[in-house]
Amino acid sequence: MGEKFDVVVIGGNFAGVSAALPLARARRRVLMVDAGKPRNRFSHGAHNFYGHDGKAPLDAMEEAQRQFMLYPTATLFKGEAVRTSGQKDAFTIALADGSEVTARRLVLATGVKDTLPGLPGLAERWGQSVVHCPYCHGYELPPGPLGVLGVGVHSLHGAVLAADWGPATFFTQGKVEPDAESAALFAARGVSVERSPVVELLGPAPGLEAVRLADGRVAALGGLFVAPQVSPASPLAEQLGCVFDEAPMGPYLRVNEMKETSIPGVFAAGDIAQTMHSAPLAAAAGAFAGVCAHRSLIWG
Ligand SMILES: Cc1cc2nc3c(=O)[nH]c(=O)nc-3n(C[C@H](O)[C@H](O)[C@H](O)COP(=O)(O)OP(=O)(O)OC[C@H]3O[C@@H](n4cnc5c(N)ncnc54)[C@H](O)[C@@H]3O)c2cc1C
Questions:
Q1: Within 6 Å (CB) of ligand 1, which residues are found?
Q2: pLDDT at 112
Q3: 52: which residues sit within 8 A by CB, 6+ positions away?
């Protein structure tokens, strides 16, 4: 390609397209680079997204990218950005086809990847009967008993919520014991506590019928909530030297109130730069990051 862009947006889903659109509409030369692996691709439908409730994740992304490409100053590279270097006004981005492009500003919207607990039968149910967020997929789980896997203290909060979607059991996994406040909320909301760890998920995947416990018992379950550990889906921010902060679920990029990272000229939005992960929150952050990158082209 060897081309010069005002802004290169890396990541082309909720945050990335939302950042790229205002820039294209400002008639700026924008390249959006997307490897086509949105985080929610394991589920049938994305929920809670204005005007698109239940749409298949890859269909929603394709439609959003199609709309971006209607602008004459928009360019889309379908593939990976493999390396970034440089500084404000002179970033170089190496693409998977061996070409390099330059940009005055960068927006990182590359999302995160999930590291799931290594329980037999869990990975093949991810996004279907094993889900991270009750608001996204709790409604679609079959009526009946639900579980919340204890992976950290934040799982206690998930168990208190889960009772609105079905009779809930909190599995301590031998490492997350309810504190007094959680125990009182569990009692008030009818959440049971199981201390024998889940060792295997049972039934025809991607559905769930039950879990096997370490003591040999089998507990019937139609759905299991799991909050996975997350890490950046791409090493680009680290390559650039951007500062990260730590949250219980993993690291996230530090951005200021204008969505700029610790590296001047590098903006970031979406799951990679916040701890609350959802499509509408990523889109909102992306839209603001796009506007901030545009303002930075003008005011410096
Ligand atoms: C199984 C599952 C289901 C979910 N369901 C819902 C739901 O129903 N509703 C909801 O609100 N939230 C849901 N979420 C959360 C939601 O998926 C995220 O909050 C949202 O996708 C974040 O958007 P994003 O744009 O930051 O990142 P993503 O959507 O993950 O998009 C990042 C994009 O960047 C690309 N990329 C990464 N690195 C590079 C690179 N180096 N070069 C080029 N491209 C790159 C990726 O391939 C991807 O296309 C779900 C999450 C999971 C795990």
A1: 10-16, 33-40, 42-43, 46-49, 80-81, 109-111, 114, 127, 132, 136, 233-234, 236, 270-271, 277-280, 282
A2: 98
A3: 46, 60
